[in-house]
């Protein structure tokens, strides 16, 4: 909703509330039927506010009506029992507003989720088709280049060029694999796994890359974490992706931290880096397909991570660290 459009709608709500309040205050108290009609008119801005702004809109309209209406009720007060019906009416008014606001927000969230799912399905289908078409030519290029390389001596002037072709082909194949992973539906193969053990294995795999980057990995595992149903291969894919990103983000001499802990609703795995951080506006888009703050890559890595975590019934969040960098936190049931 645009800022100008939002202000216009707020203006309409305020205008309607002021008009109905004006009618109340300008009509003598004895004309009971008119006041009853005016009170019914309050439902118009309430309904509009609920549909336009959800629960917040309903609360805003309710407060905007009730507070200015209190002096009128005070001056016309005839005792609690005589005015009891108006208390019930006010309670019903607020309840209806909150209910409409809640239902409106729920419908909007469901619609957004449905549109997002449809968009991701369309993107996934297109990406999968493109990746499938690229896979065979890349395998042919890599295979033939390796065959030619075998017939060249180590000091041949063209060998470095062919090694570069092989290296770039390997990188492209990895990108194609990411595209295929994003496009195809995942079938989880869950077994009883310990999150600490999975994280430790991924750290062992990542150590050579971390050492070559001059980055240390610090661990803090909760020993009381028990086994739970997890797809070990997919969870390793998640942890390795986050570890690689954290190492790449941290400069030489810095530390990447990996922590596990028990929580009320399950377990958490936190991976923190000491990089330059992620802009606040980018944090909202970081898990979207093809969004990347790096020059290399497809921008699908974190989208796949999110997909795998959610298939396990969990969710992933990120937040900025006070000392710099960011933390990715995985919550699993």
UniProtKB/TrEMBL annotation:
Reactions accelerated catalytically: ATP + protein L-histidine = ADP + protein N-phospho-L-histidine
UniProt keywords, alphabetically: ATP-binding, Kinase, Membrane, Nucleotide-binding, Phosphoprotein, Transferase, Transmembrane, Transmembrane helix, Two-component regulatory system
Keyword match Transmembrane: yes
Entry keyword annotation includes Transferase: yes
GO MF annotation, one: phosphorelay sensor kinase activity
SMART domains: HATPase_c, HisKA
Residues covered by the Histidine kinase domain: 129-333
Catalytic EC class: transferase
Segments crossing the lipid bilayer: 12-33, 40-67, 87-104
Pfam families for this protein: HATPase_c (PF02518), HisKA (PF00512)
PROSITE patterns: HIS_KIN
E.C. code: 2.7.13.3
Entry-linked SUPFAM superfamilies: ATPase domain of HSP90 chaperone/DNA topoisomerase II/histidine kinase, Homodimeric domain of signal transducing histidine kinase
Name listed for the protein in its UniProt record: histidine kinase
């Amino acid at each position: 909703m645009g800022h100008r459009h939002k202000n216009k709608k707020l203006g309409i709500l305020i205008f309607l509330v002021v008009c109905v309040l004006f009618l109340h205050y300008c009509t003598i108290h004895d004309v009971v039927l008119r006041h009853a009609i005016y009170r019914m008119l309050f439902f118009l801005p309430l309904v509009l506010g609920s549909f336009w702004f959800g629960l917040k809109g309903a609360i805003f309209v309710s407060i905007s009506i009730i507070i200015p209406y209190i002096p009128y009720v005070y001056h016309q007060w005839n005792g609690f029992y005589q005015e009891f019906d108006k208390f019930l009416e006010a309670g019903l008014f607020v309840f209806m507003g909150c209910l409409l606001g809640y239902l409106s927000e729920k419908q909007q969230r469901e619609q957004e989720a449905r549109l997002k799912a449809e968009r991701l399905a369309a993107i996934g289908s297109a990406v999968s088709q493109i990746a499938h078409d690229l896979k065979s030519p890349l395998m042919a290029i890599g295979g033939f280049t390796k065959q030619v390389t075998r017939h060249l001596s180590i000091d041949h002037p063209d060998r470095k060029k062919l090694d570069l072709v092989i290296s770039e082909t390997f990188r492209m194949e990895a990108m194609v694999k990411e595209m295929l992973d994003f496009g195809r539906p995942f079938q989880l193969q869950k077994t009883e796994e310990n999150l600490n053990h999975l994280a430790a294995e991924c750290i062992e795999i990542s150590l050579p890359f971390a050492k070559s980057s001059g980055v240390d990995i610090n661990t803090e595992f909760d020993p009381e974490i028990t086994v739970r149903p997890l797809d070990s291969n997919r969870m390793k894919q998640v942890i390795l992706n986050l570890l690689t990103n954290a190492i790449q983000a941290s400069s030489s001499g810095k530390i990447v931290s990996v922590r596990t802990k028990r929580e009320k609703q399950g377990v958490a795995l936190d991976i923190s880096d000491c990089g330059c951080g992620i802009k606040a506006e980018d944090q909202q888009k970081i898990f979207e397909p093809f969004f990347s703050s790096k020059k290399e890559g497809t921008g699908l890595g974190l989208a796949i991570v999110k997909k795998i975590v959610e298939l396990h019934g969990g969710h992933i969040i990120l937040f900025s660290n006070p000392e710099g960098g960011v933390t990715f936190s995985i919550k699993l049931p």
